[in-house]
Automatic annotation (TrEMBL):
Keywords: Iron, Metal-binding. Residues 17-113 form the Pirin N-terminal domain. Its cofactor is Fe cation. This is Pirin family protein. InterPro entries: Pirin, Pirin_C_dom, Pirin_N_dom, RmlC-like_jellyroll, RmlC_Cupin_sf. It comes from Natronospirillum operosum. The lineage of its organism: Bacteria, Pseudomonadati, Pseudomonadota, Gammaproteobacteria, Oceanospirillales. Binds 1 Fe cation per subunit.
Amino acid sequence: MGTVKVSGRAHDMEGVPVRRVMPHRTCRAIGPFVFLDHMGPTEVPVQVAPHPHIGLSTLTWLFSGEMRHRDSLGNDQMVRPGEVNWMTAGRGIVHSERAGDLSAPLHGLQCWVAQHREEEQGESSFQHLASAALPRFSSEGVDWTLIVGHWLEQRSPLNIQWPTFFAEGRVQAAETWQWRYPSSHALGVYVVSGRLTVDWHDGEAMTLAPGELGAFPPPESQAGPVVSADVGTHFVVLGGEPLPEPRQFDWNFVSSDPALLAQARADWIAERFPSVPGDSGRIPHPAEKSSG
């Protein structure tokens, strides 16, 4: 895959307006990241009833507002700005997302990270990291928060299965930087606000506006891209080592094996997935809606 620019599309997430950025027909994955939603900002309360996942880890990263996460493992956790919710589905998990404090608009990102083929049928798990646990540092005019993996010689304490990174940047001074990272890693840059330009040494720089994602292949050398941005620009970088096999989707299910997708669909329709303690209801699979 060469360099690609993607603009998010308006989407409805159980009543909450989101900008769906990935997957896109021109960008199916960036490293192990296979899904990116930009939520809000919105004052619409989140009421996402229990629903299932397989074969992926979900990452929730909020800029404002809060959400209550409950899952079939018994976890009941409020997630607030600067905190990490990382849920790993393995062979199957169910969770819900409900509104918390409504005094601030809900605004943030949700990502799916595909699990390695050897882990797709593993145990489910959940990690929550408080804000104080995350590395925060400044580098060349950017204030960084490292959420997942390894970035700019810093490392997050989050326990992950595959070489992956996700970091938030806020530009405090107008400078030009060169990002260096492993030559095996793909890079994505998503702009929340402001404007950022990435020069990939291919003779044509890519300028990204709010709601736009730039996807870049692994660098051919350690030089890395040259980046500049307006003061005040708010963005995230994400990516990592690409998975060796492509991933397929069926609704909220991700897998390298179509048979696992079919089994998960049948199990959810037949209500064989575990329930979420303290929460009720379920979101039907699209096949149930169409057949009803």
